[in-house]
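Researcher: Re-running this chain for the archive, since the previous output was lost when a drive failed. Same request as before.
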Amino acid sequence: MRKVLYNWTNLWYNNTIIEENIMERKKNVAITGSRGFIGGHLKDRLIQDGMDVTEWDLRQDPPKSIEDFDPNHVDYVIHLAAYANVRQSIEDPQKYWKNNVENTTRIQKICHYNNIPLLYASSSCIHNWWLSPYGTTKKVNEETAFENQVALRFTTVYGDGARENMFIPKLLSHQVEYVTRHVRDFIHVKDVIEAIICLMSKNIRQLEKAYNIGTGVGNVVEDLALTAGYTLPVKDGDACEAADNTADITEMKKLGWSPTVDVNDYIIKQTIPH
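Model: Regenerated structure tokens:
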């Protein structure tokens, strides 16, 4: 019994030391979805900080599917590869289940069995997950996560490189046809990256299972159009969308992180003639 207890304690101690060293070194970071909006910004930042980044993205040449994910020589995984369109998930729920659930579960298991810390993309939709298949996939992701795996509950992310069909890019290019009175917590991608870096700098054993990544400030969508300088018809939002996704970022602030970019200031700067 004493020998068994010693071996178990020794294993726990060694794993703790390994993880703490990883948190200090973080030399080899694997990013799934590395050619996406958030993934691309994160990749550039980590390389700038002197880390080795292994990319897993179908947009690479040659493409690298996360179905073939290889954990060898990886110290840390940031899993950002996922579909993220509420309306599209209603049109093709099977597509969302396969990519968002089956592939994420695969990554979670690989990281667990190889003792690799994992941060993975979740969503503020988790708080009203039953409204859409997309929200449901995020709920399942958080239910299947193991220890040392932390969910990133992003609110509405914007900034350079955002998809053209997202609200802020459409607003700035005058392609929005109508607005709603939904309240949205818009967070700049720069602040998202800083939040991820903040979490990576901590011992993952001491983190919560999930963190809300937003600004903590909600903006009425209609008001943002007025900030951009024009008035649009107001319509009711879709039933699949939450009325308000403002995040409670208390736990992130405890870690020393706070957002720095205000969406209204961003819109004003982008609309001022240069």
